[in-house]
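Journal club side-thread
Mid-discussion, someone asked how the predicted structure for our own chain would compare to the paper's figures. Pasting it here so we can look after the session.
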Amino acid sequence: MSSDLVVVLTALNLEYEAVRARLRNPRVHRHQAGTRFEVGRIGQDGCRIALGLVGKGNHPAAVLAERAMAEFSPAAVLFTGVAGALWPSIQLGDVVVATQVYAYHGATSEDDGLKARPRAWEIPHHAAQIALHIARSNDWADGLADGVVPRIHFGPIAAGEVVQDSAVSDQARWVRQHYNDALAIEMEGAGVAQAGHLNRATPVVVVRGISDRADGTKTVTDGVHWQPRAAAHAAAFTVALAQELADEGTDNQSTTGQMGGRARMEATTTNMATGNARVGIQAGQIRGNAVVGLAPEQPGDLAAAITELRGLVEQARRDGRLDDATTAAAEAELNTADDCIDDGAVRNRNSLLVALKRLLGLVTDVAELATRLPAVIGAVRDLT
């Protein structure tokens, strides 16, 4: 994981520009599939930001968020931009941090109406704590062109596939009926949240500036330039959050303590193994890099490592530690990994990383696999 780099994604170009304006010396980073990111730094010595434009909609947001995670292995992924308010207490220009994201288009149509089948993803606890900490001060708003300090709200956000600009349409009433605690509505958050769910080690946070009220007045508010103002507010909070998340990632690698603290805690370490579990390493404190288990350095070794992982998956199935469905999903990811290696050479590093990360999410409760896979993933990341 790149603890000093945070991915920030936007849907609209004006949202992108609001973040880019806060970066020093952004430079183009080209993904092999054609996606362009710009990587710059916050101020003189702040964390690095990999900035990307995904376009409108949950589906492209999910694909490019997954791509960014595989490409950069970031400390976090933040999605920022504008949204419509659903509560009258939320003012234009306010900022909403999503405590959970609803994919509100999940439903079933029956004779007596449309029944919600909601999916929701919560903000990671540690990220929520950092966002709340930032919101308690006004420092994050320093330098805003309009000179205001927007209010920060924490609550659910609804994400769908249409622009909602009515308070009385059938869809508007349906959203308020089934998701009546949602503070804002937009079109990309669910896709990014789903990508984060598939990459368990990468926290995802959605930050939105309120540019309209989703009530039929969008043309008016856009006409008086609330979109760029709201985007700038959201960008300011997002950049402050990115820095704190990166700082926490660095602290976690070098120290043990509370957020922002530098105090070290000495600890004794006791490892216990039962059943088929094995103790791989026991240490009180480790400084610098440590590799546990298999650490292949050559592509040929990676092929052997995948073969070994396949054997461990099959053994876990025979032992009853993996059910048939999970085993089938794990084997599918191993097949994808095999396809990325041809005659000992890695043909698609990013796809190989994604397959191995998904495999880790499937088998995290199997001790041998949970300790073996991070070393293999690390070896793939080190390939040039």
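Post-session note: The radius of gyration is 22 Å.
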